[in-house]
Structures are given as C-alpha cells and as structure tokens.
Amino acid sequence: MKKHLQGILLIAFYGILFTIAGTNIILGGSAVNREKDIVSGMSTLADNDLDITIEPIYDFSTNNFFHFKVTVSFKGDETGRTIIQFPDKFNGQSLDECITGIYPASQYSAFEETGTQGQKIIIYPAKSEVTFCYEVKDIRRTSYIDINSRYLPVISDRYFHFFGESFFALPLTNGNREYNIKLQWRNLPAGWFIANSFGTYRSYQEIKCSLSNFRQSVFIGGNDLHIITKYINQKTFYIAVRGEIRFSESTLADFLWSVLNETRAFWNDYNYDNYLVTVLATGDNYDFASQGRVNSFSLFLGSKKNLDYGLKKTIAREAFHNWLGGIISPDGPSQFVSWFIDGFGEYYSRLLLLRANQISIEDYISEYNDVLNEYGRSNYRYASSTQQESNSWSDPALIKLQFLRGDILAHNLNAAITNYSENQLSLDDFMHDIFSRARKEGLQISNGALSAMIRYFAGEKTLSEIMSTVNTGKPIKPRADALGKCATIKVSYPRRFLIFGEQFEIYSYLFDEVYFNRNREECMKWFIPNND
Questions:
Q1: pLDDT digits (tens, 9 = 90+) for 429-458
Q2: Whole-angstrom Cα distance, residue 37 to residue 200?
C-alpha cells in the first residue's frame, strides 16, 4: 500500500512540475506522434555508458528531403539534471539551423532552457535512464561542396559527411572522462558504406573514449564512396574518396602511405588501427583545405588541384599533428605555445617529406628560403608574445607569424642541439623525449616546460636566444649551420618599394651542388641523423 501511494505521489509531483514550469519546458512525448518514442525510466546503462542511434528521415516537403534523426541515451545522475551541449558553432560557422526537432523521449523527463547558446538542461528522475532525440539537416545552399562551408554537415540521399562537433549533442561533462559509447546506424539505404574515425564498414560500433575525443571525429558514408585499404606495420588505414579529383586515387593512396609510414617511424608509434583519411571533391577549382581529427583527418580538394608541394606539406602536417598537438598537448590555451606546436609542425612536415623521398634537397632549401623571406617582410616580426596572445585568434598575419617563427627556431634549435651534444643528438631526440614524457608522465606543453628541456638539450645561451624571440619579439637570426654543410647563408637588405621605404633584412641559403654531389651521404645525414 505504501509503495502504491509513493508511486501516485511521484506521478503527481512531476505533473505539478511540468505544469508550473511554463514555456521553457519541453515535455517528454508531448509532441504529436512521438508517444511511441517514450522509453522506460528503468535504466540498463552504467554510469559511463552512452547509446547513440542514427537513422534517416525522409521529408519530401523540403528541398533537402533526406536528413538524420539522432537518439541519445545515458544514465542520469543523482541530481536529476544534466546540461546537454548541442552543436552551435564550429570553426566560425553557425550550426543553429542544422539542429531541429529536439525533444526528450524518456519518461518524466523535460528540457529546460539555460540562457546559454547551444545548451539545454534535461531534467529527469534521479539516476534514471535518460533519452532525447533531435534531427540534423543539411542547410547548405549549393549541391556541391563549398570549401568555405566545409564545417557544415553534408547530408543527401547519396552520401553524407560531417564532423562530430557539428552533429552530436552530448552531455556536458568532464571532457577527459571515458565513456563506453555504443553507436548504431539503422535503416540506411541499401549499398551504403560507412567510415569514421573509429572504424570502417561498421553499422554498429562500441567505442571507448572521452566525449571530447568523440566530438573530434569525422564520419562519411554513401553509395558512391571509393574506399581504399592500406597497411602500415600490419595496422589498417583507409582512404575514403567521394567525387572526382585531379590525380588518381592510387597515387594519393601511395603518397598517404609514404607520409604516414614515415611519421609513425619517426615517433616509433604504430598503435593506430583503422586510421582514416576522408577526401571530398569541392568542385571545379584549385582549392584545398584540411581538418585534423582523432585517428583521422579530412581533405577537401578542388577537381583541378594537383598533388603539388603545398598539398603534400598540408597532408604531412596533418599526419604529424596527430602527435604534436594531439598526444603532445598544450597546458592551457594553445596560442601560448603555437610557435612550438604549429611552427615545429611546419618544420617536420617539410623534413618528413624529404625523408620519405617526396621532395628533393633543392626543394627543401627553396621552400625554407620562402619562409625566411616571408618572415623578414612580416609587419609583425617584432610582435611580442603578449601582443600575439591577445590578438592571435583574430589576425591572420599574427597566426602566420607563429608558424614562421617556430619553423625558423626549429632549424636553429636543431643546429644548436647537434653542436651542444657534439653531434650525438638532434632535434629528433628533443621531440622524442617530449613524446615519451607526454605518454608516461602526462607532460603538457608550456613555455616553462619547453624552457627546461631546451636548457638541457642545447644550453643556456640557446634558451636565452629562443625565449627572447618568444617573449619580447626579438627578430630571429638564422644560424649559418642550420642546413648543415650543403648550403651557405647570405643576407640581403631590400627595401619595401624597390629603392625607398622600410629596409628589410632577408636571409637565405645557397645550395652547394658541387659539395653535395661529392659528400651526399654526409649532407643527408644532417637531415636524417639516425639513418644508420
């Protein structure tokens, strides 16, 4: 009798709650034809479980009649309230219109507005199973992929492509907490293939990762994908291509294998299975862009784009940033150490192309001279770190300066370490030590941590030179021995307007072809120090 009375009181309580909450409450099952979606409040989920189901919806009353319904379930906590973060904005592109049809689908649950863009609170009986649903639509105005709107979900009756941040609504919890995520696709059209950052050819997946990593994913599927399978050290990686590109897919696949193999060999880390590279053609143009993801990255290529140095370097940089910027992560806002993460990424993306025989030594020196020229002419070359930190996200020239500075500092530091250790060590050893500490000790990168390691590997004088540039904006002077003995340094002093205006100090290196041909092995050992 007592239990029966408690049940009546509980129902009455939630009835009163929903009545007085007003228009800020969206009741579970209150929308027309959604009563069938209401699920029992009895929970079969553990505290760290998350179930996600994705299925297509056909709405022929709209131009983009094909879109997705997403159902999310998780175990509620003792508070009976959880903030849900809906896709709102990703890399500057608004996602407001992409997410529609939001409603709670578990018993006695309701949504409450928070006043914060992209967030809602779902309320429920304490520790019950919580389920909510929403729909994701393609709001692009063109049938082709516009590279400027590449962060928006692409959803059609032939294929889809989206990033986790632009698609998944998830509980707002500790970003590092691991979840057991069960992801299921239902009722997809016949003949569709699926690939994502966590596996390929799978309509059901069990994924163990943090919600932060889950968001940093890419998903692609459809009936006209070309999926190429490759192997590195018995680990699988996939290339999923959609659309026509300028060069053959086999050429791209072979290049990707070469770069990924060289990068994994550099870190001596082959623990990457089901790695994915997605490639979307963007139309009749020369455009290209990339986006790094967890265990994957995405490429957007115009149909006229060749596999030239710019594209090769972009791909190599994305591969390298899986470690530098991924496993080796910043301690705080990334712009504070962008000179290291982005700048050293530039250095190694070029260097690994050389080691993989994808560019020549002449190409390497020519491209580095372009960096020195751009740095020497930058209006911000005297900018202090304070100025960079306050403006780096809004000024493209300041962002580029961090790439240029870091690239030059990496060359200088490599030469300094080599000399300080009497040819026993190089910048490679410095990077390997950071990686080992990040993996084993949880080291995160800060200017303080980098200072200690630079002092250890290269001495106090080199540390002072590097940090005076990072902290005060002191111009960098490239070292004469930064490229070993196969190139000599020179400096010129051009003016901004031919014979008048600001005078620049531009450094460059001259390739000594005669010396290189006579001492090829010695010259290449500078760039590949451990190639015994």
A1: 999 999 999 999 999 999 999 999 999 999
A2: 29
Residue 490 to residue 46: CA distance in whole angstroms:
66
Q: Return the CA Rg of the chain.
A: 27
Q: DSSP E strands: which ranges in 396-505?
A: 487-492, 495-497, 500-503
A 10 A CB-CB count for 228 gives: 18
Q: What is the pLDDT of residue 143?
A: 75
Distance CA 499, CA 5 (A): 94
Give strand ranges (E) for 263-368: 275-281, 288-293, 296-301
Instruction: Look at residue 28 and tell me whether its pLDDT is greater than 50.
Output: no
Q: What share of the chain is helix, strand, coil (3-state, %, to 5)?
A: 35, 30, 35
Q: Residue 283: what pLDDT?
A: 85
Tell me how far apart the terminal alpha carbons of the chain are, to the nearest angstrom.
83
Measured distance CA(378)–CA(368) in Å, rounded? 15
| Average pLDDT of the chain to the nearest whole number | 89
pLDDT digits (tens, 9 = 90+) for 39-55: 444 456 777 899 999 99
Sequence-ordered list of residues with C-beta below 8 angstroms from that of 300, at least 6 positions apart, any chain: 145, 147, 150, 280, 282, 287, 288, 289, 290, 291
The pLDDT tens digits of the residues spanning 82-112 come to 999 999 999 888 998 999 999 999 999 999 9
Length of the chain: 532
> Cβ distance 508 to 500 under 8 Å?
no
467 has pLDDT over 70: yes
Closest CA to 57 of 157, 146, 203: 157
Q: What is the dihedral of CA 272, 218, 315, 301, to 10 degrees?
A: 150
- Calculate the alpha carbon distances from 497 to 199, 369, 375, 501 in Å: 55, 21, 17, 6
What is each CA distance from 483 to 3, 96, 368, 479, in whole angstroms?
81, 50, 10, 9
**Token code pair at residue 500:** 């008048």
At 175, the pLDDT band (50, 70, 90 cuts) reads low
Query: Residue 179 and residue 50: Cα distance in Å, rounded?
Result: 7
- Entry pTM: 0.87
Tokens 């910048």 locate to 427
| Domains parsed from the chain with CATH numbers | 25-223 (2.60.40.3650), 225-318 (1.10.390.10), 334-477 (1.10.390)
* pLDDT tops 90 at residue 513: yes
Dist CA 226 CA 268 (whole Å): 30
Residue 242: CB partners within 8 Å, gap ≥ 6?
Answer: 159, 161, 220, 222, 224, 225, 226, 278, 279, 280, 281
Beta strand 49-58 pairing with 178-185: parallel
